[in-house]
Model the fold of this input.
Amino acid sequence: MASEREVRARLQRAGQEHLLRFCAELPPGPRAALLAELGALEPEALREHCRRAAAACAHPPGPPPDLAARLRPLPPECVGSASRCDPEMRRLWEEEGFRQISLNKVAVLLLAGGQGTRLGVTYPKGMYQVGLPSGKTLYQLQAERIRRVEQLAGQRHGTRCNVPWYIMTSEFTLGPTAKFFREHDFFHLDPSNVIMFEQHMLPAVTFDGKAMLEQKDKVAMAPDGNGGLYCALSDHQILEDMERRGVEFVHVYCVDNILVRLADPVFIGFCVLRGADCGAKVVEKAYPEEPVGVVCQVDGVPQVVEYSEISPETAQLCGSDGSLLYGLGNICNHFFTRDFLRMVSSEFEPLLKPHVAVKKVPYVDEEGNPVKPIKPNGIKMEKFVFDVFRFAKSFVAFEVSREEEFSPLKNAASAARDNPATTRRALLRQHYRWALQAGACFLDAGGARLPELPSLPGNREPPAICEISPLVSYSGEGLEPYLQGREFRSPLILDENQASALQL
Done:
């Protein structure tokens, strides 16, 4: 371990010697821990990180003045749709996806480095329960979807197949996530197929370019964003692990979407048959000013442009069919070939520019007192996973239904949108629609038949509560044997045991 003198010299080179201002008063253990943490920081990289953070934060927010002239929608030939396509073509995409899964060529990769801070909890977001009748967490729902898609692919092709689950965590989430999976027996997945790894951490920085102390003996660190994936793949030899397993295609997604379809065969098949090395699922923007990034072209190459960078006038532009010209909303749901990930990790990662996130960062003041700020006081620099789209040789976007595939959990219950209630409602509404489509009907407490309302306005609750286990149905398929012509009182929880009883 480097001595205090060596660490001080390194920090002087970085212009960050203030990080040692409490070192002399620390007991031996905390002092050694602080010196070890600081000794791992490369002086030149630390100096440049702090400089870039302050410089980027000083830039005025809003659209770049020349962006509108450089912006174009994606060419129609680069865009597919799950709903507006020929049914036979959709069947071919799905069949190709299942074929690749059956050959063990598909993996899923979860971006799970963030904590549930905005939800008001201290544990990883994947451990959160939104209040489903079953009490399932986001992690459990996702694990069961993996098991179901493996089963479906195996049944179609007469094989036993695996979809490895790679989970990128952070320093904050690795321990709790690993413990949670062990306590739940990996949700009956093979533990050897659940691979967890950590992304990098970077110091939080003040507005004048100084790295911050969270405690007297600890630097305020933050994950380097979901774009930290590409460094982490190299650091932990994840691509080598994929190659050993024969994985060629990777579905990358974010933990907070309760409706996410892991290793979606339709999406995988669409991308493979189009010869894409990089793809993005998108949803149609609900309204021009919706705060989601837009998948489009800038200077002729695919890119996600943040909603804050698009002027209101540009956001409202419509095409000849009346739809928004820039209406493909990014939902952090991507397809990559393994070869593309290797190319990005080995060649293009240094070209990714970090983005500024101004946050409330707990810190210690000049006297060493802990402070929890009430307004943003620091800068966290993050890279975004989608910033690699511009390096793709063949990029595609795939539009899906928002009500079937996208409902993110981002905010606490007090927020108006993307909260536990809206995500729970989205899943229960979906399962209610599936049940109606399979021929079920629901009764009220008095035995009278409830009205069938497959299409519900706004945030209205479904007339009946119905939750269908992913182990019974992945995307609404195969429910007729259990539900057709039957009457149920709410709530109906259709898990494997209930399904077996109904089939008998």
Notes: The mean pLDDT is 93. The first strand starts at residue 71 and ends at 72. The two ends are 66 Å apart (CA to CA).
